[in-house]
Design a protein that fits this description.
Helix content: over 70%
Radius of gyration: 15 Å
Number of helices: 7
Distance between the termini: 33 Å
């Protein structure tokens, strides 16, 4: 399924809207806990750390070492970080 088609689905749109209703860290924690496994939450956190290190100019090998991410994950995050959607960039700018 391509990305554009995915966001046309009513259930996916409902998920996006659900995130928009969350007003606090506790709300986000509760929703993530209900929605994801602990491993999935840790994987998301790892990917965000990878994005942050790559954005700071760290070499791939150093990012792998610091985060424990596989070379495939680092490469995938790098592609997304520099891709057309800009989701990582938006989050990284907000935290700066």
């Amino acid at each position: 399924m391509n990305i554009e088609k995915m966001y046309e689905r009513a259930d996916v749109d409902q998920l996006v809207d659900a995130f928009l209703t969350l007003g606090s860290k506790d709300d986000v924690r509760a929703f993530l806990t209900d929605l994801c496994t602990p491993r999935e939450i840790c994987d998301f956190a790892q990917r965000l750390s990878v994005a942050r290190y790559l954005d700071e100019g760290e070499p791939y090998v150093e990012v792998q070492s610091r985060t424990g991410a596989s070379s495939t994950t680092v490469s995938r995050v790098s592609k997304a970080l520099n891709g057309e959607w800009g989701g990582y960039r938006r989050v990284l700018i907000e935290r700066a």
